[in-house]
Amino acid sequence: MASWGERLEGVRGVLLDISGVLYDGSEDGGVPIPGSVEAVARLKRSQLKVRFCTNDSQKSRGDLVGLLRRHGFDISEGEVTAPAPAASLILKERGLRPHLLIHDGVRSEFDQIDTSNPNCVVIADAGESFSYQNMNKAFRVLMELESPVLISLGKGRYYKETSGLMLDVGAYMKALEYACGIEAEVVGKPSPEYFQSALKEMGVEAHEAIMIGDDIVGDVGGAQRCGMRALQVRTGKFRPSDERHPDVKADGYVDNLAEAVDLLLQHTDK
Amino acid sequence: MASWGERLEGVRGVLLDISGVLYDGSEDGGVPIPGSVEAVARLKRSQLKVRFCTNDSQKSRGDLVGLLRRHGFDISEGEVTAPAPAASLILKERGLRPHLLIHDGVRSEFDQIDTSNPNCVVIADAGESFSYQNMNKAFRVLMELESPVLISLGKGRYYKETSGLMLDVGAYMKALEYACGIEAEVVGKPSPEYFQSALKEMGVEAHEAIMIGDDIVGDVGGAQRCGMRALQVRTGKFRPSDERHPDVKADGYVDNLAEAVDLLLQHTDK
Asked: Is residue B109 within 8 Å of B131, Cβ to Cβ?
């Protein structure tokens, strides 16, 4: 493998995943990953541009940032790309009126959206709200549309909480896709449009950017398909088998965000 | 198309789907399809062998037969192939101890099955029991197994009740398949093993048998792939577009079971 100097040459912007990289989530707020608070602070003092790019669809961007700030992170709402505000923008642009199958924690992101007489369905990580009745309601809305539009905020299979593994929105997206015979539009990683919107906000071209995440497929593979470089951290949902993934090879594997930032500050911006 | 005489030549046994062919279901018991009670009676007085082959996984076989008898149908438990007793047999044969994600109405079919320390998951049309909590429980059981086994009682997308369309077990099967990265084993139509077990019970070879159903894919396509012939009735979930289905062509389309039985009695057993 090439030296770190060659691998990180020309990097001007850094995209950071949040859950599993900055902190480990749980129902009562989670805990920061050791070294990550300081790593973010150092990165922001450097000449590198920084943006946070998450698939969290259970919390509003404001709530997520508030939580991270309480953990000591230097982060503001304007620096975060999150699927709910991205979807909200798409709905406005396309004149779509969604039926929302979402968690109450993220409902405020859709306050400005007309949900009367729905002509599409938006599905997010709804948690306990994924009842049979709610799923059936969303299904019936789709089946009544001539050209059903299903927008899914991410397509994760599952995530880990302190209580154990939790089914993520992707599973329920697949259920509706199969029942209706349709394909969902994904707003979130690994959708190229989603990465590109984060790059645009950061003002950096794909070949000048690097993604740092714990998900070998959604973060690393997704970013690389957009022409970015990507590092995988050995925190969060990382598993040793990820380093032998059949399809995706990261540009580097690091123990945690602190090590990634060490390398970036050492080898870029010379 | 060949004459009915040619198409029905050599038929000795008839497999009948139940929902949408004999009766239209609903929460309060449903209603028989006009002419079907008499059609079944005439068929059973003929020299043709008859068997009922259903994918209903919300009711025990006893409850289903009781309901049909109250509607006036001449039917007994021993004449019905249903997915729950078929799955129960498979579990016993393979020494599998299931975690059951099923409707309470069908639980009695698994009374004799050891469900301690589960080494597989059985999923059926659980209706309201498809809560996030129950889905997550089934998901965690699968993820803890070295070689996860998921058995699905049918893989229907949806069915129709008087109150509207209802998501069927297939949607939830797809959710678990995606989340776990596995493929379910389907017990029910259109699984070849399932049709073959019905043929064996009837004592008729596939080429001597004909399936009568309302589902162009599950009933007609499934039976044809087993070497049987198949008629689609224009009742139940039949839709006019079924007669132009891109992949499946029935051996004949009839208005209802009564017309199918007229044709069978006229053209077979000469």
From this structure: no
